[in-house]
Amino acid sequence: MGTKVVLADGKIRDINQQSNPDLYFALRGGGNNFGIVTRFDLETFPQRRMWGGMTAHPPTTNASVFQAFENFANDAAPDPDAALITAYAFVEGNYIFSNNYMYAKPIAYPAAFREFTSIPNITDTQRITTLTDLTRELNASNPGGFRETYTTATFKVSADLQRQILDIFVREMAPLAADATGFLPALVMQPITKPVISLFRKNGGNALGITEADGPLILMNMAIMWSDSADDDRIIAAADRVVADSHASARAMGKDYRYLYQNYASLKQDVFAGYGEGNRRRLVEISQRVDPDRVFGELQPGYFKLDGGNGGSVS
After folding, report:
1. Are 195 and 80 in contact (CB under 8 A)?
2. pLDDT at residue 272, as a whole number
3. CB 309 within 8 A of CB 267
4. β-pairing, 123-124 with 217-226?
């Protein structure tokens, strides 16, 4: 609903849709190019007990998982309480599918997930619990202490495309799985449904450039962990090939999409180009007004800049 921001000239301002609609728009997707946000004003609601958990499935279920994903994304409108993350991960020498479910009401096995929960699984932790408990469970599946890179892409929803991307991912990861130390790759996909996209227009909209007509979409995050810095270059090169070949497959099917999610993007990706040229130009114009000396564009290092520069995402 609003933010408190320290601007490049040192002034502190409360920014919302009424006080400064342009800067408010820019802060909703523009990264660290406009100021230092010291407070967020949020619209809150009570979240009591809910349904959620994880199921793990063997790789042979990929056709069923991806078809369920496509149907979930296309049929999301009747039930806004359901959210989903699907991952294909290499764990202890084997690949598995992991589906993470979140349902905002304490209803066991809700109909929104029925197609997923009917697929044979290896493990099942679904239960009525709290958001805190589900968050801790998800976090526990992401071990610390590794080197890690993220790379992202977005596509129109298609189970056939997801299967092609999976084949590309497995092909490129196979040589690394053989000898890269501590190698833990995961191909993660989340649906951006039309009901979710419709909320982007709320309170003045945002800078992402996604409309309901574009959806539903697949948000892909390729998250790769490893232990030895000597493997950095070849792992990052393999990730780049997966993204390039996935985009090529998507273009051939008419399913490619420009958007790059900033929190998942790699150091080589031009996030703001993915917002569309009109939104990028508007962000540049707002930046020139609020930061004419480019304090945040040049003097502050790191993260993604409006001119296509960035600070990277290998840690």
Report:
1. yes
2. 94
3. no
4. unpaired
Asked whether the beta carbons of 28 and 279 are under 8 A apart, the reply is no
Q: What is the pLDDT of residues 148-200, one digit of tens each?
A: 999 999 999 999 999 999 999 999 999 999 999 999 999 999 999 999 999 88
| H helices present in the chain, as ranges | 21-27, 62-74, 114-117, 131-140, 159-179, 194-198, 232-253, 277-290
The β-bridge relationship of strands 50-57 and 127-129 is: antiparallel
> Distance between CA atoms of 270 and 58, rounded to whole angstroms?
35
Question: By three-state DSSP, how is residue 217 classified?
Answer: strand
Rounded-to-integer distance, Cα 220 and Cα 152, Å = 5
**Nearby residues of 288 by Cβ (< 8 Å), 6 or more positions away:** none
Structure tokens at 27: 């802060």
Asked if residue 173 lies in contact with residue 223, where contact means CB atoms within 8 angstroms, the answer is no
| Spatial separation of the C-alpha atoms in residues 294 and 32, rounded to whole Å | 12
Q: Which residues contact 8 (CB under 8 A, 6 or more apart)?
A: 35, 290, 291, 293, 295, 296
Q: Which residues contact 298 (CB under 8 A, 6 or more apart)?
A: none
CA distance 220 to 243: 9
Cβ distance 118 to 127 under 8 Å? no
